[in-house]
Structure formats: structure tokens, C-alpha cells
């Protein structure tokens, strides 16, 4: 597994990097057979350290965890525990409910736009009906089953996930409803 360990305006020493590789490597390999890479970012916010970890699995799914603590090692350990918990749940779901994926998840390219919420000069009514695009980025749309899409949405901590349904070959959406349940849009 490839590791990318970095710090935002803080120095990440060799001892911390070794600790991260040992602990995260043991946690990930316990529950994921073929992890591909891991990105760990440390930052400092006032008196607390924050650790954000992202692990990409060979199945195409991504697990993310974030934690804060007053010490940098404690922040990482808490983040690692959250990651291990997510991967344990993921593996349990695979064993209980889903088929083992032999092929990696197929990804399709798409554009993602961020639109402005109000007019820039404070007007309540825009001059045109065209939205103001603040940012445009490239995003990937995975080809998953509905169960895998729900699992990916929960692992990423996202409120919504757009995916290409493997069984019907159309775009679908899963989202977290206000009542706590999961909604599925299948056009």
C-alpha cells in the first residue's frame, strides 16, 4: 500500500510517519485484502490537531475518517479507530449481503459545478436566468449496485451519491433522508 503522509503548515516527523504506517497498515490489512493507497493529512486548528485519512480500496470504494485531539498522536489514533470501524462494517456487509466483486468498480468522467447562491452585487433578482458558476471540477461516477452505492455513501460520509446502476445501466441517486432512512431515485 502506498502512503502519502503530509501536514498542513506543520512538520510530520519520521517517528509519526512510522507510527502511521504501522497502525493504519495493520488496521487496513486486517479488513481489506487489497488496499491500494492511503492519504493522511495532519493540520492544527488553534490548540487541537486534526487528522484526516482516506483509504482507497481495490474494489473502487473509498473509506474516510477524521478526528481531532490536543495531541497529534491521539488525533491519529482516534482517526485510525474510526477507519478500522468503517472497514469492519464494510467487510461484514460484504460477507452478509453482497457478492464479492471480482472486477474493480468502473468509473465514468463527469463535470461537477458549484453554483452561486445569490447575485454577487446583492441584488435579489438576477439579470438572467443562467446560474453563476463559481467552480468547475472533474468528478468520477462509479458503476455500482444499489447496495454498494449505499455502502460507498456511508463510508464517504456524503449526504448523496450519484452512480451508474450496474443492473439497469442508467444513472441513479441514493441520498440520506431527513428521517434517517436512505432514499433511492431510479429514473
From TrEMBL:
Q: Which residues form the Sigma 54 modulation/S30EA ribosomal protein C-terminal domain?
A: 130-183
Q: Which InterPro entries match?
A: HPF/YfiA_ribosome-assoc, HPF_long/plastid, RHF-like, RHF/RaiA, Ribosom_S30AE_C, Ribosom_S30AE_C_sf
Report a single Gene Ontology molecular function: ribosomal small subunit binding
Against Gene3D superfamilies, the record matches this protein to: Ribosome hibernation promotion factor-like, Sigma 54 modulation/S30EA ribosomal protein, C-terminal domain
**Keyword set includes Cytoplasm:** yes
| Record field: transmembrane | none
Q: Which GO terms describe its biological process?
A: negative regulation of translational elongation
Keyword Cytoplasm assigned = yes
Q: Where in the cell is it found?
A: Cytoplasm
Keywords attached to this Swiss-Prot or TrEMBL record, sorted alphabetically, are: Cytoplasm, Translation regulation
| Principal subcellular localisation of the protein | cytoplasm
Cellular component per GO, a single term: cytosolic small ribosomal subunit
Entry superkingdom: Bacteria
Task: Fetch the Pfam families from UniProt.
Answer: Ribosom_S30AE_C, Ribosomal_S30AE
Q: Any idea what job this protein has? A: Required for dimerization of active 70S ribosomes into 100S ribosomes in stationary phase; 100S ribosomes are translationally inactive and sometimes present during exponential growth.
Subunit info?
Answer: Interacts with 100S ribosomes.
Which PANTHER family does this one have? 30S RIBOSOMAL PROTEIN (PTHR33231)
Q: What is this protein called?
A: Ribosome hibernation promoting factor
Supply the source organism for this entry.
Roseovarius nubinhibens (strain ATCC BAA-591 / DSM 15170 / ISM)
**Gene giving rise to this polypeptide:** hpf
Amino acid at each position: 500500500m502506498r502512503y502519502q503522509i503530509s501536514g498542513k503548515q506543520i512538520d510530520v516527523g519520521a517517528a509519526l510517519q512510522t507510527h502511521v504506517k504501522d497502525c493504519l497498515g495493520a488496521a487496513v490489512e486486517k479488513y481489506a485484502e487489497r488496499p491500494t493507497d492511503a492519504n493522511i493529512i495532519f493540520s492544527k486548528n488553534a490548540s487541537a490537531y486534526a487528522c484526516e485519512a482516506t483509504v482507497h480500496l481495490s474494489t473502487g470504494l473509498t473509506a474516510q475518517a477524521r478526528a481531532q485531539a490536543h495531541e497529534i498522536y491521539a488525533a491519529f489514533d482516534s482517526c485510525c479507530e474510526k477507519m478500522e470501524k468503517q472497514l469492519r462494517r464494510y467487510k461484514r456487509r460484504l460477507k452478509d449481503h453482497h457478492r464479492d466483486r471480482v472486477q474493480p468498480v468502473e468509473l465514468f468522467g463527469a463535470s461537477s459545478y458549484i453554483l452561486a447562491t445569490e447575485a454577487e452585487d446583492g441584488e435579489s433578482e438576477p439579470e438572467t436566468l443562467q446560474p453563476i458558476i463559481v467552480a468547475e471540477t472533474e468528478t468520477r461516477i462509479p458503476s455500482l449496485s444499489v447496495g454498494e452505492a449505499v455502502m460507498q455513501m456511508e463510508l464517504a460520509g456524503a449526504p448523496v451519491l450519484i452512480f451508474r446502476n450496474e443492473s439497469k445501466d442508467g444513472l441513479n441517486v441514493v441520498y440520506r433522508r431527513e428521517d434517517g432512512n436512505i432514499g433511492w431515485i431510479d429514473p
